[in-house]
Amino acid sequence: MPTITAFKASPDKGAGLARDMRVRWALEEVGQPYDVRLVTFEEMKQPAHLALQPFGQIPTFEGEGICLFESGAIVLHIAERHDGLLPKGEAARARATSWIFAALNTVEPPIAEREYVTYFEADKSWQAERFAMVDARIRIRLDQLATAFGDAEWLVGAFSAADILMVHALRRLEGSGLLEAYPVFMDYIARAEARPAYKRAFAAQYEVFRNATSS
Question: What Rg, from alpha-carbon coordinates, does the chain have?
Answer without folding.
Answer: 17
